[in-house]
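User: I'm preparing a small set of examples for a lab meeting where we compare how different chains pack in three dimensions. I only have the primary sequence for this one, and I'd like the structure in token form so I can line it up with the others. Please keep the answer compact; I'll paste it straight into my notes.
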Amino acid sequence: MDSTGTVFDPAAFQAYTELRRIASEYHLEDELEVPQLVVVGETSAGKSMLVQNFLRFPCSFTAHDIATRCPVSYRLVHNSTLAGGEKRVTKPPGVTHPEKLVDHLKIEMERIAKDVASGFSSHCFEIEIESAEYTDFEIVDVPGLVTGNPQADVRAAVEGIVENYVRNPRFSIVLLKEAGQLLQNATGALRIRELCTAPQGFATTLPPRPDYLNHMITVQTKFDSYLSMKNGTDANQKIENLRRELGETYFVNMIFDGYSMADHSFEQNVEYIAKLPELERTQVDHWIEELDKAAGSPPQGFQKFNSTEYRPLIGIDVVRRQIQQLWLRVSTGNIKCECLSFTTNRHPQIHP
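Assistant: Understood. Below is the structure token output for the 352-residue chain.
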């Protein structure tokens, strides 16, 4: 949470407030589609961890080593009547506090694993959370791709679920892959491309989405694998290769020093998430300082780290801002379209 008390970046939150004012002026609050984002990637790429770092509280059942077995929708609802810092869970029934979500999700995932033949369900498990600090937004965490699973029915079940979201133009896409993984080995990233662009979907009737890259960012997780690198030449080259292969891409770690949320209380994990941006910033900056100290010395003559181009791509706060920008682009587009429709169809004399 930033100094303004909002979960979102202050500039994004201010823009959101203005968009709501415009929607209210044209009486379009109920007609606007809530911006939606789907988080995809291979199993253990860090999807659920990214979601809870974005929401700023631990909500991931992966603390119990339970895989995501169905799409999990986190619907954020702006409620200006709630006190600062207060978050109220309104779905699922019977859960009122974010702390209770982990156990509730764990039970549901275990049920699906036991009762469904493939171990996966396409039925979306819906969570709705209200806060004065939220904007209206929906994040969907889908099961991780299991491209190497020898069971064809399991692969088909998971890919069918993912395809239903990534081919849907209403959803912006956040693709997660491990930073140390080159594109030719990133079977999850390659499979997402196929699911989006195949002329015919194998599990849905949705048309191909050839422009999906315009609505997607890639997040490279487990960036700590780079922090063991000792020279700026190699670090620069690896980051540049990934940028060239994947386009708009960012880097994040999310967990440092072997911290396990399963071993700590809800309050301790909230505190860890709050401190993570500064911890990450400190460790990455120290790594860059060491690379720069080693630069220029013979016989290798290593480069300095390219801080101008690459440092702005690293960090959980960077990733949050980019997710917010995806949201903001969709929100702006929705309101412009609705306002244009309103002024054209209902008040022809008004020109937008």
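A couple of notes for your slides: The domain at 10-344 is CATH 3.40.50.300 (Rossmann fold). Confidence is low (pLDDT under 50) at residues 1-6, 335-352.

User: Perfect, thanks.
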